Amino acid sequence: MISEYSSPGLNTPNQYDMKTNSIGLFNERILTILFTIITIIGPVSCNTESIRQHEAEKKKLNIMYRSISGSVVNARDMKPIRGVLVTFFNPMTNKPVGTLTDSEGKFRIDSIPEAVRKITSIDIQSNKSKEVELNKGDTVLIKMD
CA-CA distances (angstroms) from residue 84 to 1, 35, 75, 101, 109? Predict the structure, then answer.
């Protein structure tokens, strides 16, 4: 009898192999999506020279900036969601800026112009997004539906 998982010339994979393969496919899809996002918004890391230039531009333009931090959780059970893209459009550079939540659902974004009033969170795994109004505080709790 041939198993639905067997192929000619190969042994039937055990339960562990099937889980590893499905996780591998899942990770490959996530990496493809993240690569696409990073290609669109640009690299998230900066070299020291670009950071110095950015700081000099901020001083020259006398623009007020702030930092925000927060976490993204599931609205039903309040469990943290990792890998959520938290982003905003920077009107000073005409480019989107973003970061990903860590394993505890936490994030931090520095150098947000005061003119920015909204951030968007995109949960790639569930294919959902949510726009959040920023208030005067520097801590944000985003509840994804």
Answer: 44, 14, 14, 5, 13
CATH superfamily placement of domain 64-144: Aromatic compound dioxygenase (2.60.130.10)
Q: Which residues have CB under 8 Å from 145's CB, separation 6+?
A: 75, 128, 130
CB 108 within 8 A of CB 116: no
DSSP secondary structure code for residue 19 in this structure: H
Question: Where are the chain's structural domains?
Answer: 64-144
Q: Are 104 and 33 in contact (CB under 8 A)?
A: no
Residue pair 19/13 in contact (Cβ under 8 Å)? The answer is no
- Taking only the tens place, the pLDDT of each residue in 43-63 is 555 556 766 776 666 665 667
Instruction: Tell me if 139 sits within 8 A of 68, measured CB to CB.
Output: yes
Q: What percent of the chain has pLDDT over 70?
A: 59
Task: Report the residue count for the chain.
Answer: 145
The pLDDT tens digits for 7-17 are 444 444 444 44
